[in-house]
Every structure is written in C-alpha cells, then in structure tokens.
C-alpha cells in the first residue's frame, strides 16, 4: 500500500482483542499488599541466614553446656530429625523470591542436621588384618521381659567372646546357668550387671558409692580384667542412671495424669532434670577417669544413656574410640526399638585398639538393640 509523502507510517496492527486492551490487569494477591510482600521476603531472607547459625548454636550448646543446664539437658533427647522442619519452607520461599544465592546456606544446614545432630556415619572402617581379635557384645536386656532363653539363643548367634549385659533384674541364677551352658564358663553377676566371657575373668571390682546431693549413689558400672587373645583387658560394663523419669514430662498421658492429681505443680521440675542429668554426668566422669588411668588396654560397653553431642560424654569419654563411628554405617540408633530415635548403646575402646566391624541386632528382645563389635590389637603393642 502506498503512503502519502510525509504522512506517518502505520504501526503493525495490534492483534490483542479489544476487550483485553480495555480490561486492566489484575495485580497478584501479594501485589495488593506491598507491605506484606516486602515483610515476607525479608522474613524468608532472614530465616535463610538465621537457620544455619541457629543450628551451629544448638550444636555448641549441646557439646559445651549439655547436662549443665536443664533446658539443654532436655533438648538433647528431642528427635533430631525435627531440626529439618524449617528447611522446606525456607527453600520454597527462596525459590519463590528467586533468591537462589542463599540456597547454598540451606545445603550447609542440611549437612549440619544430618551429620553432627543426627549422627550419620558413612561407610568406612578397617579391614581385618589377622591380628589378635576379641568380639564384644553389649545389651540392655530391659529386665529380660522376653525371657532368658531367646536372649541367650541370640547371644550364641552373635558369637561374642565377651558379653556385657545390664538391667538384669530378675532370675540372675537362671541366666548365669544358661550362659555357662551356651559356652561362657566365666560369668560374674552383681546387682543389674552380668558379664560373661569365654576367657577367664581374673579380677572384678564393684566400685564404691559416690556422694551426690547429700546422698550416696551407685556409680552404676562394673570393672573387670579379662584374659583375652589380645592380652589382659580392662573391661567396663556401664549403665548410668536413665533419663526416663526426667523425660516423663514429654509424655502427654503422664502430664495429664499429673495435672489432674496436682502433682504437675508440685516440686521443682527444673531441679529434677538438673539432678538427674548431673548424676549421670558424674557417673560417666568416674568411668572416664578410671579408664584413662588404666595401664591395661580398655574396652567400655553399655547403655550410656546419653545421645550424640552430649557434653557429659564429650568431657568424659571422647578420648576413646567409638566402635560405631569407626566401623559402623548409618545412624546407628539403638533406642527405642519400635521407633529408633537416638544412639544410647555404645562400645568404646582405647587408642591401642582398632574396630574392624560393628553391628546392631537383638530385635524384639528388649526396648534396646544390642551392639556387637570386633576389635583388633597387635600383640606387639
């Protein structure tokens, strides 16, 4: 089409329907409330930065305060997976606001939860070298509610050389007889502790009671010297006081009963928590102090009743090798069996030992899983 000289050329025809051109665009829902949108964006950005910082603070408080304060003593036993809950909404918010530069911080948060807080261990460990070896099993029997016959049958299947049983409250004689018939000629029984060995138990020490808050309390461990293929070994069978009474406050049913009876308002719950955790810390401290002073190689096994990152454990026993960390894989949770939430049962050893395997077993025999470890020690050490 020709155009008149000097007349402006027509622009390309707008193909948008006339109704659409006349109808104004609808603003987004948040666009109607700009202050709310800006506040939400700031909240997401702040949370993205605060989340990993808060996780680091929790880890530091657990390791360096732990049982010294009632609130961290309680928090130690919270399900660690709960620390992952803020991650999803923060990541969704960052993606929605296109703040991908802060996503790497959420990767750091994920690592902090999965490894230090939840205690994930990647596959590792040393292969057997052919050196002298001893196999140790530790098991909280929960008073043997499943019966001693299945317990002893499982022990035979695991084939340990040394068995450390705790919370054995009934029929000690019957259990002792069954263990001897199962190939453990050397059995020592004291209070809740039963130690069985294929090798001679040449010494057993029931330590004296310890003073705590004006009372004499049980140290809740036994010390033995056992003649093994790796030489004489100082073996500690350990079960410090349980946190169950302290953690009863978390059980809704128990709390409702106490509220109805008025018991919930009586006493000093903070003092109860602090006293329970303080006694457990003192019991572990005594075990650690005696074990560190040994001239013999040391093996420590038991339900230590402390989860990962415990300050009491860190101060008293972190100098010993942890069988699960050296030769295990996964989370290693041992309690409770129906829904494992924490690792309470451990086998530890001095630095002159090396762990070549670590297993968790004994399903349906207790509220705890048992733990079994193979340890090597070259004879020339």
Sum this structure up briefly:
The chain is α+β, with helices and mostly antiparallel strands and 381 residues long.
Task: Compile the SSE list and pairings.
Blueprint: H1 18-22, H2 34-64, H3 70-75, H4 87-96, H5 103-117, E1 133-140, H6 148-158, E2 162-166, H7 172-181, E3 186-190, E4 193-197, E5 201-205, E6 210-212, E7 215-217, E8 221-228, E9 231-238, H8 244-247, H9 252-261, H10 269-292, E10 298-303, H11 311-317, E11 321-322, H12 323-327, E12 345-349, E13 354-361, E14 370-376
Helix pairs in contact: 2-4, 2-5, 4-5, 10-11
Task: State the main characteristics.
single chain; 381 residues; alpha+beta; Deoxyribonuclease I, Chain A; 2 domains; 6-stranded mixed β-sheet; 12 helices
Tell me what you see in this structure:
By secondary structure, the protein is an alpha+beta fold. It folds into 2 domains: 18-117; 133-376, Deoxyribonuclease I, Chain A, CATH 3.60.10.10. Helix content is 36%, strand content 20%. It contains 12 helices and 14 strands. The strands form 3 sheets. A 6-stranded mixed sheet has the order 3-4-2-1-14-13. The longest helix is centred in the first third of the chain and has 31 residues, at 34-64. The chain is elongated and about 80 Å long.
């Amino acid at each position: 089409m020709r155009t008149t000289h000097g007349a402006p050329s027509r622009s390309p025809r707008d193909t948008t329907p006339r109704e659409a051109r006349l109808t104004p665009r609808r603003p987004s829902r948040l666009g109607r409330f700009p202050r709310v949108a800006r506040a939400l964006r700031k909240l997401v950005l702040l949370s993205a930065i605060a989340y990993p910082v808060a996780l680091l603070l929790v880890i530091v408080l657990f390791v360096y305060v732990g049982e010294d304060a009632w609130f961290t003593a309680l928090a130690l036993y919270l399900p660690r997976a709960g620390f992952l809950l803020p991650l999803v909404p923060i990541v969704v918010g960052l993606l929605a606001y296109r703040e991908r530069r802060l996503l790497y911080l959420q990767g750091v948060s994920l690592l902090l939860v999965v490894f230090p807080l939840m205690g994930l261990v990647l596959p590792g460990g040393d292969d057997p070298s052919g050196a002298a070896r001893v196999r140790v099993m530790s098991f909280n029997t929960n008073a043997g509610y499943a019966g001693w016959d299945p317990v002893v049958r499982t022990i035979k299947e695991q084939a340990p050389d040394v068995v450390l049983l705790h919370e054995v409250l009934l029929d000690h004689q019957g259990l002792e007889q069954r263990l001897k018939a199962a190939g453990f000629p050397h059995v020592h029984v004291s209070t809740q502790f039963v130690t069985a060995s294929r090798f001679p138990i040449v010494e057993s020490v029931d330590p004296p009671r310890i003073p705590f808050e004006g009372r004499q309390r049980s140290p809740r461990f036994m010390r033995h010297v056992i003649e093994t293929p790796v030489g004489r070994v100082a073996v500690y069978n350990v079960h410090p006081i349980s946190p169950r009474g302290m953690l009863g406050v978390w059980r809704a049913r128990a709390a409702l009963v106490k509220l109805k009876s008025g018991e919930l308002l009586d006493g000093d719950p903070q003092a109860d928590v602090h006293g329970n955790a303080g006694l457990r810390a003192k019991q572990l401290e005594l075990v650690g102090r005696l074990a560190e002073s040994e001239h013999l190689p040391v093996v420590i096994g038991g339900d230590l009743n402390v989860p990962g990152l415990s300050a009491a454990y860190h101060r008293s026993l972190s100098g010993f090798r942890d069988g699960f960390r050296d030769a295990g894989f996964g989370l290693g949770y041992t309690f409770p069996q129906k829904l494992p939430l924490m690792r309470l049962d451990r086998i530890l050893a001095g630095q002159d030992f090396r762990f070549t395997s670590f297993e968790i077993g004994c399903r349906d025999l207790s509220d705890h899983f048992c733990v079994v470890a193979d340890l090597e020690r070259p004879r020339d050490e």
